[in-house]
Amino acid sequence: MFVFDKTNYSYSIVEIVENKKDLYHLLLLADETTEAIDKYLLESTVYVINDKVKSIGVFCLYKIDDDIIELKNIAVDSIYQSKGIGGSIITCIKEIVKEQGYKVLVVGTADTGEAQIRFYLRNGFIKTGLKKDFFLINYSEPIFENGVQLRDMVMFETKV
After folding, report:
1. At 128, phi and psi to the nearest 5?
2. How far apart are CA 111 and CA 155, in angstroms?
3. Is 14 in contact with 48 (CB distance < 8 Å)?
């Protein structure tokens, strides 16, 4: 268990081994469908962020190889957003994956997700590539963000 303080309030990060699907309500804040989540959820290491009362966030880590791990999902309940909690979670994620022996943390987000792109850049990630037509290939229905249909995924990485 990891503990971090943000704005004089303590949060814990706990690995979830069973009943991962119970976290859909949080996972769906960062991914559009349960079908998409199911493609990585059971093979991912899932962590929940708790305050003293309830679960306020979640993230999933998916092993690519012995050196590289991917952040497949990170979400914070909307009432806790814009308070610096996400950045604190990224710091904890970097510590977790470094302790596990990984050297690189990768993450992808929609090329239309301006706020998400700024978030990753602000938290030490660099843009490394683009997965063309990712959202067209991997989702059965069109997805729109900021009034624009999602097509491509921007990939980022950071050394840990």
Report:
1. -125, -10
2. 9
3. yes
